[in-house]
Each structure stands twice: as C-alpha cells, then as structure tokens.
Design a protein that fits this description.
This protein has 179 residues and is mainly α. It contains five helices and no strands. 12% of the residues are buried.
Length: 179
C-alpha cells in the first residue's frame, strides 16, 4: 500500500525482510524463535515509517528546488524586460522608477538566496508590478516627448518659412536695413 510512498530499493528490501520473517514463522518450532520474529517485525515497521519519511522529505526538497528555479526564471524574465528599455530612456523619462526597479530586483535576488520559495513570492510580485509601471511610464513619457518634439519641429519650420517670407519682402528688408 505504501509502495508509491517509498523508493523502490526500500520496498524491495522491506519485502525481502518480511518474506524472511514469514519463512521463519513457518519453520518455527518453539515460542522463543517467534519472539525474535515479533522484534524484527516491529523493526520492519519502524524502518517502513523511516523509508516513507525519507521519500516524502526528498519529494518536498525536489518541489522546493523546482519552485526556486521557477522563481529564478521569473526574475530573469523581469531583468530581460528591463534591459529592453534603452538605458538613456529609462534614466531620462523615469529615473525614480529605474531606481525602484533596481531596488525591487535586488530584493528578489536576496530573497532567492535564502532558498525559501515562500519568502520570494511577495518580492517577485512587487518587482513585477514595479517593472510594469516603469515600462509603462517610460513608454508613455517617451511618446509624449516624441509628440512635443514633432510639434516643436513644425513650429520651427513655420518660423523658418515666416523668416524666409519676410526676407523676400522688399519693404521689410528696407526697414531692416534702416535700423
């Protein structure tokens, strides 16, 4: 019944020990030999419990390691997302956010170093939100800057056209030469 809760080699060893005791019971001629069987069967039960505990402990460790690897991957994805933002843009359009991102990612790295997945989840959730906000802020402010830049270039063009027109007007040029 507990075979799936134990390593195969433990199952085999315990089954062999049980079979040996069954054989001893069949061949027993007196009560003193049966007393030894009772002692050995109790030991087998204890060893069975230890085998189950060992397998459960190892399985939990595997789960913990897998969760740490998943969280490490999440951290790496966040770092890649941050790296996709040009450094100049991040500093120019959201310096505070850039600093917050660095701090949040550092907190995640420290939590990962502890090896406890439960202590990593909250910092990684926070870092994810901070990175998302930073990315949105940089993108939005860059778009606004691009829009203002285009508008400024249009105004410069209009002013240049106006100056060119004024330079072509002989009356304006006469007034300008008298000043």
């Amino acid at each position: 019944q507990q075979q799936s809760s134990m390593y195969p080699q433990d199952v085999t060893a315990l089954q062999q020990r049980c079979q040996n005791q069954v054989n001893t019971i069949r061949q027993a001629q007196d009560e003193s030999r049966l007393q030894n069987v009772v002692t050995e069967l109790n030991q087998i039960l204890q060893d069975c419990d230890q085998a189950v505990s060992r397998k459960r402990r190892d399985d939990e460790e595997k789960k913990r390691k897998a969760e740490i690897e998943r969280l490490q991957f999440e951290l790496e994805e966040l770092e890649r997302e941050v790296q996709r933002i040009p450094a100049g843009d991040a500093n120019k359009f959201d310096a505070t956010g850039q600093s917050s991102v660095k701090q949040a990612l550092s907190t995640v790295r420290s939590a990962l170093a502890s090896g406890n997945p439960q202590t990593v989840q909250a910092p990684i959730n926070n870092a994810s939100e901070v990175v998302k906000q930073h990315t949105q802020t940089v993108t939005q402010r860059r778009a606004e800057w691009e829009k203002r830049k285009v508008e400024a270039e249009q105004v410069v063009g209009q002013i240049q056209d106006l100056v060119t027109g004024l330079k072509a007007d002989p009356v304006v040029m006469r007034w300008h030469s008298h000043s």
